[in-house]
Structure formats: C-alpha cells, structure tokens
Amino acid sequence: MGAEGSADGVEQGGGGVNSEARSSNSETRRSAADRAALILATGCGLGYAPKAPGTFGSLLGLPLVWLIEGMKSSPMAYGVFAVLFCLVGVPICSRGATLFGREDPPQVVYDEIAAFPIVFAFTALTPLSAVLGFVWFRVFDIIKPWPLRRFELLPRGWGIMADDVVAGVFACGGLWVSVWLVEAFWV
Description:
Layout: H1 19-29, H2 32-41, H3 53-58, H4 61-70, H5 75-100, H6 110-119, H7 127-143, H8 148-151, H9 156-185
Helix pairs in contact: 2-5, 4-6, 5-6, 5-9, 6-9, 7-9
C-alpha cells in the first residue's frame, strides 16, 4: 500500500510518514453504506483489475442477464429490470466517483454491468449471443461513437451511467443483426 492509496484503491491523499496511519484510520471510519457502494460500484472488486477494468466488470453483466432470463420474465418485466438496474446505478456510480475522488473512475464498473440487460433486450442469451453481445458492447463502450461521448457530460452518476446505457442500445442493435445474419446464413 502506497502513501497515496489504501487497500481498496481509494485515494486518501497526503504523504509522508503518517500517511499510512491516516489511510488506515480513514478505512475504519468508512460507513457501511460507503463499503456497500464500493462493492457494487466496483462490481464486487472486478473494477480493481489493473488492466481493462471495464472489460472485467462487464463479465458480471452476462450472469445478470442469465438470472433475469431464468426468472422467465415477460418482456415488460425484463424492461422494468433493465430500467431499475440503470436508475439504481446513478447513486451507486455517483457515490463511487466521490469515494475515488474522480469524475468517472475506471474502478467504477457498475455502469457496464447494468447495461447488459439492454444489450440482450431482444436476443436470448446463448453461448453465441453471449460472445457477440459482450464484444459489441465493449466495442461501443470503448470507441464511444457519436453521441456516446456527449452523454458523459451529464453530471455525476448520470454521466457515468448514460454513455453505457446508450452503448448498450447500440450493442443491442449490433447483436440482433449479428444473430439474424448467423441464423440466416450459417444455421
């Protein structure tokens, strides 16, 4: 643990000999709500991956879709789940950003996870669609074609969530077309 960080990767600031003691004291003062927010915001810690935290965090999106589909939800209920995950994500991502002291910290990956029900809104989860949907989402989330970057300008958790929601919509279209093409020409 360095002078500027803590065990959970949240910057504590400061320096010098007593910085680790300050970090340790700050850790013990963190509320249960803050700890819960960090667990959710970082995708149970996947957001701490040293390389490509968004890609690692996105891996939790597939089990989320699998769970929702496993409930045999109606299309309307599926849509309600997708909207709820996104709305709940706004305060989670806002709190994560505050705790990390950055506008859109890479460790906050809840937004990637919550976008996956949108990616699979019109396509059933299968091994093929899981790979295609994952790839489409990561491509749109990383490249951020117009207008995705504009959504990042929204304040706090809204901006963190919005670009991924729109990337999910784009990926949903890409996935649907890809699966249609595979079924039309290769199956």
